Amino acid sequence: MSKYWSNFVASLDPYTPGEQPAINNLTKLNTNENPYGPSPKVLQAMEDAVNGDLRLYPPPNADQLKQTIADYYQLNTDQIFVGNGSDEVLAHVFNALFRQTQGILFPDISYSFYPVYCGLYAIQYSQVPLADDFSLDLDKYCRPNGGIIFPNPNAPTGRLLALDAIEKLLQSNRDSVVVVDEAYIDFADSGSSAVALVNQYDNLLVVQTMSKSRSLAGLRIGYAMGSAELIEGLERVKNSFNSYPLGHVQIAAGVAAFKDNQYFEETRQLVINSRVQLTQQLKAMGFEILPSAANFVFVRHCDFSAEDLAQSLRDKNIIVRHFNKPRINEFLRITVGSEEQNQLLIDSLSAIFEG
Questions:
Q1: Burial level of 11, CB count in 10 A (0-12/13-18/19+)?
Q2: Spatial contact of 229 and 202, defined as CB atoms under 8 Å apart
Q3: Would strands 332-335 and 318-322 be described as parallel, antiparallel, or unpaired?
């Protein structure tokens, strides 16, 4: 602890991001990045944006990107918020909407940034246990609260909650905000997104990212959709923190990514198809696999410890995510890679099993 730190900083328990090692010939299946690059139209838009206008501040409201997202989801621009990755958007959500007199609720096995935000903003919270099959039981959330947040599909489990279950929760929880964190929703069946409910429930906020399905993890573009009232709260916090979260190049890339829907659908389907094939291959090798609607699978093997498997794969220059936490310490989260990466994973596991 530094003598220059405030007591507040010393008490923080920061988030640990997925490993980004600088290893040659690495097969990286630990942070759920898209195996396919951005749309060529995105790369061209970025190139076009690299010009003399970079001397100017970007538009603080990223109006063109907001309009593009609003058009895509058939919403109004005052229902759209954008930020520097969905992590920044979520940080503003916690600060703007969850600092209430009552504690907030989220799953015990979920995105591990949530308790970090609570520590950062002194927010009380309760973690609601997942069911034995690692599904969300929303009946457990029907109690007084200062807000509710959960990923859908959940992370790291990958399980999807049906839209009618979310609507039932919204109907029984009208006095606080419900945030659905949809980082992986594009890898689920069409029609699974809670965006369809935004105009019916003014306490619903849906957070998404362009990092996963649109292959822009390196650019950091996130956004939220909800009632104008909720969005205004986020804007007030954002403009008290950083008025220019997205630069010219980010805005241009985001607009182009949404407009190239054909590329989005093609690569999205490739990932879904690969997930199905990878699931079948892993099951044939004796893995138990939770139903996944994301671009990763959550697996365990009855004969091999997750920690040992993770290390054995690392020895073969393949990294996957192992969470050494209660209830899930025998699971590995494996990103769905390209066909070549997935086959290398299967071949490596076969070699490990054969000893």
A1: exposed
A2: yes
A3: antiparallel
- Residue 203: per-residue pLDDT: 98
pLDDT (tens digit, 9 = 90+) per residue, 189-217? 989 999 999 999 999 999 999 999 999 99
The CATH H-level superfamily of 7-37+262-354 is Aspartate Aminotransferase, domain 1 (3.90.1150.10)
For 40-260, the fitting CATH number among 3.40.50.720, 3.40.640.10, 3.20.20.20, 3.20.20.70 is 3.40.640.10
Q: Which of 95, 124, 99 is nearest to 235 (CA)?
A: 95
Nearby residues of 236 by Cβ (< 8 Å), 6 or more positions away: 96
What CA–CA distance (Å, rounded) separates 297 from 333?
A: 6
* CB crowding 244-255: b at 16 or more within 10 Å, else e: ebbbbbbbbbbb
Determine the Cα–Cα distance for residues 32 and 123; give it in Å rounded to an integer. 28
Distance between CA 194 and CA 262 in Å, rounded? Answer: 22
Q: Is 353 exposed, middle or buried (0-12, 13-18, 19+ CB in 10 A)?
A: middle
CB 260 within 8 A of CB 42: yes
pLDDT by residue (tens digit) across 18-54? 777 777 789 999 999 999 999 999 999 999 999 999 9
